[in-house]
Specification:
Elements (H helix, E strand, L loop, with lengths): L1 H24 L4 H7 L5 H12 L3 H6 L9
């Protein structure tokens, strides 16, 4: 069922975003965080965050002290 595959794909992308956020919040550069989380580059991470969350990832990093990433 394609809906199940879409759900799994979306969850996998969410996990990659969470990993990148954790790494960036931990002090890694956005590029290092993106690459380590499985994105092709920081632009790929930015496009994915914008598409899935409707906000620029820069917003997340500017307000990282208020973020709580749940796993």
């Amino acid at each position: 069922d394609h809906r199940e595959l879409d759900r799994v794909d979306r969850r996998q992308r969410q996990m990659c975003i969470e990993t990148a956020l954790d790494l960036a919040i931990g002090g890694n550069s956005l590029t290092t965080a993106a690459l380590s989380a499985g994105f092709a580059d920081s632009a790929h991470l930015s496009r994915t965050v914008r598409a899935m969350m409707g906000i620029a990832p820069e917003f997340l990093f500017r307000h990282r002290e208020r973020l709580v990433v749940h796993h």
